Amino acid sequence: MHGSNALWAANTALHTILIAALVAFAAGRSDSPNPTVTVVDHSPPALDPTDDAADDLTIRIDYRDGDGDLGGGVAEVHDCRADGLIHTFDLPAIASSAAVAKGVPISGRLDIWVNDIDEVKMASVAATVCADLGIEPPTAGQAVFCILLVDAAGNRGDGDCTEPIAITTR
Ligand SMILES: [Ca+2]
Ligand SMILES: [Ca+2]
Q1: Residue 36 CA: which ligand is closest?
Q2: Domain covering 4-167: architecture
Q3: Distance between CA atoms of 82 and 124, rounded to whole angstroms?
Q4: Which residue, of 9, 59, 126, 158, has the fewest CB within 10 Å?
Q5: Is 60 exceeded by the pLDDT of residue 8?
């Protein structure tokens, strides 16, 4: 996929990998230029930070952008256990340049892979972005992740969060 090398390079330090846009299609109606996200699912159901084979999270999201320029923007994955635990990575091109020029609405599905999730010192309150989305203060033994999308023009839409994901150790 075009741009994937940059994607890998940008995220090496954070061990975060975005897997390609699976589906993108014209949404058929115009709406906000701010890209919105809905978390569809995640896997696996529990993570073990002490096991490199069991500490990688896949979050499946549906996105919508009313004017088509989400590609070339970024996705932010906020680990709600403390402020500043943000995995950020570049989004690949999604709509064609002609469609972006015309502002055609798009929606589709993405899988986001957040690899090598560590145990962290939990804050007494959820990360600010998470708290703003209604997430409760961190609880031992679980983690919540919130996703925000920012399009190529810098428009930022409402985020959405996973359910609490169990953090277990062997
Ligand atoms: Ca947009
Ligand atoms: Ca791993």
Answers
A1: 1
A2: Sandwich (2.60)
A3: 8
A4: 9
A5: no
| Ligand number with the minimum distance to the CA of 33 | 1
How many residues belong to the chain? 170
Question: For 93-139, what is each residue's pLDDT tens digit?
Answer: 999 999 999 999 999 999 999 999 999 999 999 999 999 999 999 99
Q: Which helix (H) or strand (E) holds 165?
A: strand 165-167
Domain boundaries, the chain: 4-167
* Ligand located closest to 157 CA: 1
List CB contacts of 5: < 8 A, sequence separation 6 or more: none
57-65: strand order across its sheet: 16-26, 106-114, 57-65, 36-43
> How many Å lie between the centroid of ligand 1 and the Cα of residue 100?
9
Residue 9 to residues 12, 89, 103, 136, 145, Cα–Cα distance (Å): 5, 10, 30, 34, 23
Query: What distance in Å separates the CA atoms of residue 85 and residue 52, rounded to the nearest whole number?
Result: 19
pLDDT tens digits, one per residue of 37-55: 999 999 999 999 999 999 9
CA of 155 to the centre of ligand 1 (A): 6
Q: Is-contact 76 103, C-beta < 8 A?
A: no
pTM comes to: 0.83
Contact predicate 16/89, CB 8 Å: yes
